[in-house]
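User: two proteins, same treatment. go.

Assistant:
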Amino acid sequence: MSGYGDLLRTRGVARIIAAQLTARFPSGMISLAYLLHIEQIFDSYGAAGLVLGATSIGQAIAGPLTSRWMGVWGMRPVISLTLVICSASLAVVAFASLPIWGYMIVGFIGGIANPPIQPAVRTIYPKMVTSKQLTPLFSLDASAQEIIWVAGPVMTTFVATQVSTVAAIVLAGAFLIGGGVWFLASPEVGRVRIPRSRRSFGAVLSRPPVLLATVVGFLLVGACAAIEAAVVANFREDGAEAGIVLAIWAIGSLAGGLAFGHIPIGPWALARRMAVVFVGTAAAAFFLDFWGLALTLLIAGAGIAPALAVMFAIVSASVKFSETAEAYGWVGTGQLIGAALGSAVAGFLIDAEGASGGFLAGAAFALLGTVIPIVFVRAHPDLRGRDASPQADTEPVSTIS
């Protein structure tokens, strides 16, 4: 923990972590708020899954595009424009009365305008710390973001069940606007300029570690989306229990990230961490009471933040600085497609089989996420004894002082 303390004392690190976490806090709220809101309107988890899927597909399309645009127009203009459009889409979903296809269109537009804050901050990090601090910083960030998944679902379920689903969506919008403005005001956002990439759009996926992180991220988040939907469906009559179980799940991820963040990243690191997620998720399908799910999802959660930290590190170590934002955009796209597919598959299985169907869907995603890094282990760089800093570009990168 002393190592993490040193990181947080590094100039600007604690502030920008807090700002980007606040701006991304709606990530732990919007999906669940939409799920509850649309299900309440249409009395169907399948319909809610379609809206979530459309939203996530929009985010997936936007991810690498808006990330690459930051190298053309700068971070602040791109993030500011997307922040305005995304906030407006939340207001429409909350207050407008639309048919299901209308909610899907609005969700898709909001997804396309999802502010690229995560790729931006992942690109900024290597410019803030030493090369030896970068891998622990990725672990700290992956762990800290679990605060989103601890507090977000609890706040959303409480507000949605005790006040209204509209209020839950509005609260998510307030975090999006407030956190986005705070992040934009951070000096580092103006100080670090992403150079224009000289490679064609999508060429970064030809790097095996980037493709591996994108595919496994897709499967990991697909599993998480299915688990979230299954937990909500399982405790439909008691939203407080659903929020508590989701918080315990996220606490497991937070603890796992902090506990394993210092371990050197070898070629089998991603497979081991995904195996933990699979074991806990598969067990959850057979223990649907409160304590059974609390224990099994605590186990599953212990692999999530460590797996994400490995993905961040192997991508950073495998690309040039000018390619980092687009690379993380593609990784984010993989995760969002996973969220779309995981939500949709789980929604229909829950309608057909109950909550256990959602957990089995999550286990299937996690199993594939374990097998793929085993089969393609040669695509996984060995970072033991190496730092995770991006490769230098051949020309100097300008900074604004």
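Protein 2:
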Amino acid sequence: MGPAVPVEGSLAGWAYRTQSLRVEESGTGGGITAWFPLLDGAERLGVLAVHETVLTASSLTRGRALASLLAMVITSRRSYEESFVRHTRTEPMQLPAELLRALLPPRTIGDGNVVSTAVLEPAYEIGGDAFDHALTETTLHVAVLDAMGHDLASGLTTTVSLAACRNARRTGADLAELVRGVDEALSTWLPDKFCTSVIAQLDLVTGVLRWANCGHPAPILIRDQRLIIDAMERDADPPMGAPSLLSPHARRTHEITLEPGDRVLMYTDGVVEARTREAKLLGLERFADYVIRATAGGELAPESLRRLIHSILAMQEGRLRDDATLLMFEWRPPS
């Protein structure tokens, strides 16, 4: 492998951040270096450097073809070939993190109608946080979960919740049935554990967003680079698992219609409970300000979220007091 190239302050990083071709003079020996983004659909895998003495239309075409082929090779092999995983890690991963990481979907998914992207920190020591997103022809399914505790048991709780959520989704269950399926799975297999969550479904044609809030922070709606105050603030139901069975009330689902370009941000409480250098809680208000500023420059959603989590980590000097998970999706139907 070649030397590491920083994401910030390099043309390679620029190609990665913007998902677009960047060209520069080669540092040694003359010629041209073209940086091609490596993409698996909407997910960023890295960049590919192609060195040429002269850059022509033909060499650009070959470079794009090579980048597409390499992205497919990486995607097909990283599920079973250990070398890719080892190269992307900077330190050993603890067992709860290894358990949960094996079940997480790609960080970014999307098509012409929507993009959904997520980050989870800390990467190597997570206990109970997780995210999930999936696409069908008509619907985006998203979920953010936060299990009680920060150990292997909390990782197992989130694992069971994720599996139950996917099982219900793949059998065509509606949102209420899906949440009930997670309740029953946790109550059966881990009766002394529970999990907070927001689970949502977005109709890609109409923009109708339906969600259930199970003891979790309310999602944030961003429209025209402004926070729409309390747009998705609703009374939360009990966490998923045994607490829901003790409640006399049925699970509730909520509904809102998005406008094209709207972004919805879901998060765990570890985000707003982070502390600034002045030892003050970040809080929802300051967190929302970070979101607006991170999305104000017309950035792609994955880059906005990457910058946001790095801002939060910088305030914490790289160490969070609690797991922090962010998931943001943007509805952008064709005009």
